[in-house]
Design goal:
The structure is a single chain. The chain contains eleven helices and nine strands. The longest helix has 16 residues, at 167-182. 41% of the residues are buried. α2 (51-65) crosses α3. By secondary structure, the protein is α/β, with parallel strands linked by helices. The chain has a five-stranded parallel β-sheet with strand order 4-3-1-2-9. The protein folds into two domains: 2-100 and 228-269, Rossmann fold (3-Layer(aba) Sandwich), CATH 3.40.50.1860; 101-225, Rossmann fold.
């Protein structure tokens, strides 16, 4: 059996793992290891002081993956995919890695080419948005920079995975929608809202409702999670993490997977932390 590691700094990438379970295709039979790369309780990648430190932690994550002997790694995380692009200047893991940047870029370019009068709003973590990588890739594909706006959403991914139905989450998304409206002096004919964080789709209903309060134009929500795929079918699933889930987190997240990705729901309910999963660099 081949080993597929799906990696995220948190639980957003479980949506991608679930898509792989729901949509088997001809190809390898996979033992899927979901590796939650959140480095330390209360201190995630976006809390680290600079890009170099984030890259060094990601290198440690890749080194920790060696014990699973992966045949393929999917980075089901925009933040980690951005860092991987930067890390490649000085380190490459000894196994193939596919991030989410390419499939997201393809989705966004296709949308804007099919809807030339639309504007696009990129939503993501501070690391993803401040890197400017998506903006650069869109320009390289002939998209005018004036057609694209971006807005970082600090702390939102963590809030979502605590409870994707929490009233506090709706309030946070409502605040983001108000900030987004201020970015557009004139209301666009159509607005594409790109989820450049794999967590954001868990709260789609909140996004739809709160953005509709601020924008009277047609809204199109673009979620690339379903586009990060790997041929084959999933025979087994494991969840591993350096950090423990917070109280109530498994109860809040596991119902999202109970019906059609039950191994994920079960794994969350029995999740344990393993600090030996990967080491942290001296600069951490």
């Amino acid at each position: 059996m081949s080993v597929l590691v799906v990696c995220d700094s948190g639980l957003g990438g479980l949506d991608i793992a679930a898509n792989l379970m729901r949509n088997p295709t001809p190809g390898p039979v996979w033992d899927l290891v979901f590796l939650n790369a959140y480095p330390q309780h209360g201190r995630g990648f976006n809390d680290l002081p600079d890009s170099r430190t984030r890259q060094e932690v990601l290198r440690c994550v890749f080194e920790g993956m060696r014990k699973f002997a992966p045949d393929q790694c999917l980075l089901a995380c925009n933040t980690l995919s951005v860092l991987h692009e930067q890390l490649r200047a000085w380190y490459e893991p000894p196994f193939p890695v596919t991030g989410i940047l390419d499939c997201t870029t393809s989705l966004l370019v296709q949308y804007l080419r099919q809807n030339p009068d639309a504007k696009l709003l990129l939503l993501g973590t501070i690391t993803t948005i401040s890197s400017g990588l998506y903006q650069q890739r869109l320009v390289q594909n002939g998209i005018p920079s004036a057609q694209v706006a971006s807005l970082p959403c600090p702390g939102l991914a963590t809030l979502i995975e605590q409870n994707p139905l929490a009233p506090a989450l709706r309030q946070a998304i409502a605040a983001i929608a108000r900030q987004a409206r201020e970015l557009f002096a004139d209301l666009p004919a159509e607005l594409g809202i790109a989820f450049c964080c794999t967590h954001f789709g868990y709260a789609t209903a909140f996004w739809q409702e709160e953005f509709a309060r601020q924008f009277s134009c047609h809204l199109e929500f673009l979620n690339p999670n379903q586009d990060l795929t790997c041929p084959g079918n999933i025979a087994s699933f494991r969840y591993v993490s350096r950090t423990a889930l917070n109280p109530g987190q498994a109860e809040a997240m596991s119902p999202l997977f109970t019906d059609d990705a039950a191994p994920i729901a079960k794994a969350l309910q029995h999740a344990v932390a393993d600090e030996s999963l990967f080491s942290l660099p001296p600069s951490f």
